[in-house]
Here is the input.
Amino acid sequence: MANDLLPSPEYSPVSPEVVELVNTYIETMDIHVTASTMNLPIEEVTRMLQKEECQRYITEIFLNSGYRNRFKLGAALDRIIDKKLQELEEAEISSSKDILDILALAHKFRMDEIKALQKLEEIKNAKPKRQTNIQINAGENSDPLSKLFTRLTDVDEV
Here is the structure.
């Protein structure tokens, strides 16, 4: 696991036990080895790893490690672009297709990231939709209005 992890934009509290379990699982990538290392039954490890807080923690670790980390990926793209620009200057090549392809790819990555962040904000800010149903279980002849409605709709009396 890389030591250059950046803090997650959202703080999600995780107990030390969950951190230890998830870190062991990430290192071993095997539930059986994790269970024996942690001295826990396999069922307990499986149950804990299925919890939402564990899944969220695993996802955060995964998205912040290696080149999946958006800052590390951005820095790598910047180095590649700088290197290509330097090569173009040194070789005095008139074609800049390589650099345009790289810039287009970097732009696409950025636009995809912005769209994903906008969707996340929409989800966070969405108001829950709620419907309230009311059922009145009074008998049909319980009040004068019900009796009048019954008489008006009864075709046999007319």
Summary: The chain has a mean pLDDT of 78. The two ends are 85 Å apart (CA to CA). The first helix runs from residue 16 to 28. The CA atoms of residues 45 and 115 lie 36 Å apart.
